[in-house]
Amino acid sequence: RFLYVNNASAGTITVTLATPGTVSGLAIADTAVAVPAAKHAFIPLANVFRGATGRAAITYSAVTTVTVRPFELGT
Length: 75
What we know:
Layout: E1 2-7, E2 13-17, E3 22-23, E4 26-27, E5 31-35, E6 39-44, E7 58-60, E8 66-71
């Protein structure tokens, strides 16, 4: 599973994926991915990002002219 992010804006955006789990009682740091202006990124969606509902909590520092699409490669 991956998240495709296309940043068509004039500035860098940050995509943040929450990591709700812990290791030995310590919180796992959220993952932040910077996507430069006019670029795109493929972000792997690992199981560590799954919340109680089984879905990832993803936020974006901007949404105007930003396109996102989750996808899964078939086997």
